[in-house]
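pipeline/complex-builder :: batch 7 item 3
reading input block
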Amino acid sequence: MSDLISSIVDNYNYLIYVTLMMIGLYAMIAKKNLVKKIVGMNIFQTAIILFYVSIGAKKDATIPIIQHGHGQGAHEITSSVIEAVEYINPLPHVLMLTAIVVSVATLGVALALAIKIYNQYETLEEDEILAQIREK
Amino acid sequence: MSQHYPALLVVIPLLSALLISIVGWLNKRLCFPIAVAALSVSTYSSVGLLLKVLDEKVIHYHLGGWAPPWGIAYRVDHLSALVLVVVSVVALLNLIATQKSVEQEFPEKIGAFYTLYVLFITGLLGIVVTGDAFNLYVLLEITSLTGYGLIAMGEDRAPLSSLNYVYMGTIGACFYLLGIGYLYISTGSLNMADISSILPDLYDSKVVLAAFVICMVGVCLKMAFFPLHGWLPNAYTYAPSAVSSLVAPLMTKVMIYVMIRLMLTVFTPEFIFSKLALSNSVVWLAVIAISMGAVLALGARNMKKMLSYVIIAEVGYMVGGAWLGNRAGMTGAVLHIANDALMTLCVFLAVGNIVYRAKGYAFEDLKGMFRKMPYTMTGLVAGALSIIGVPPTCGFFSKWYLISGGIQAGQYAFVAALVFSSLINAVLFFRIIEIGYYEPFGADHGHGSSPIRMAEAPLTMVVPLLIVAGGLVVMGVYTGDIVTNIIEPIIPLAIGN
């Protein structure tokens, strides 16, 4: 039992991202409203962004700028060894800047399509749209 | 100049997309020539790269001079060079062939259309040329987002189908991104060559297994591998004809390239075929994909939907061939990427020509088409013969490799599915040919109806179609050369006979 609890506590970031992902997936599958589906899609993407952000983090580490790297003490410090452990890994965070841009663009395209669908069918409920298509 | 081919390939279309969107505001007539010029540069560079790769084996290009694994590297080998040539040639031919149909279908959106068109090709070429796993994700999303926009330009149910594609495509891309995240956790690298040099020690790790499976599910969603194909038929049916003939030949094929790249370069054949022992189940899934694609195609009531289901069956061919685990199967899968792109382009261009004149793509619109549009129908028949797999068209040869690979691997169900699908394809296309050749009869008989006049599509639409149709035969005749010079070197020796 204590193993289970400690493994949950150790890996809570993964559990949170999986939970969020499943909430998003549920919204995409179960909701009938197109905008709710789009919001679900965005939650799904955000879950993965959070996953990446969490894998870059380290305990007791600071932002990846070399401490005392410039200024008066610069020439003394640069000779000493830079410990990678003291800094968080910036790469996953930088990757996520791109992924955020992608997710914003996807959200924009999806909402634009929703507007186009609303103008065409005058509703955003999927079952009503499908009923209209069947009537034709 | 020639050492910059890998960058020119992607950068020129990217910049010209910007240029087209600006010029589109000023003068719509300039959009088309700029697009042609940009894609010509891409085609020239990709052919140059193919010729160079034949001498030098592998070309590395470091963007900005940063050495990998820190910088983004472009890496071109025989496989990517072949797919680059296919993508750029198909895009250029389709661009020229569909000019009139674009002017007819949405004259007010020409600027937007060509911007998205060129960006779509930028993304596809980038996916093929890149050697960085995360870069591939970004380019994949560029391709997908422009693809959604292009498909939504259609009439009727196009926006709804496009939105469905957005949902499914986004899930697919997110899964790929998640898989790359797991790979990054276990290897600390994003460069494909670097990952594959670190991975062998980690083959027993569950994280690597999860990474592989998650990436594959994502890629399978994007390529519409059978149980995950739901978005494809409607999206390709309701898209404008110029878009169908662009997206249908390229999108799924490039995703199969990504799958083969992941299997051969990032993960090694030892991992795929010895450690995983998944190949049997994947080939069975491919069998189901091929059979279901064929059966669903029989139920379709219009040409575009029928061809969409044919594509789903063809995706099954290539996935199954790649997972057979022998040289013949892999050769068949790679060859089929090129062949299927050409023959799908051929039939979709023919359908585009028919839509241009007949304003519809239902089976009834085909009546008397052999007399009205003889050249277009010749092209359609050439594409149909290739999809059925009649020699000397190229479809026969890749199917031959796939079938012999299936027999060597002892996967008789796969062989049976291929034969079954070929027979169904024969039924499908002969039904079209029958409607086009023998009908109309009966209905207007005795009314002294005027004989059907020839009303062929414009020359700029017919000539590219006939070039593609001729290309099917040329590809078929030179299959031997293509296989020994281009495909043999990319299959690692680890994949035995």
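note: The CA atoms of residues 95 and 468 of chain B lie 13 Å apart.
queue -> next item
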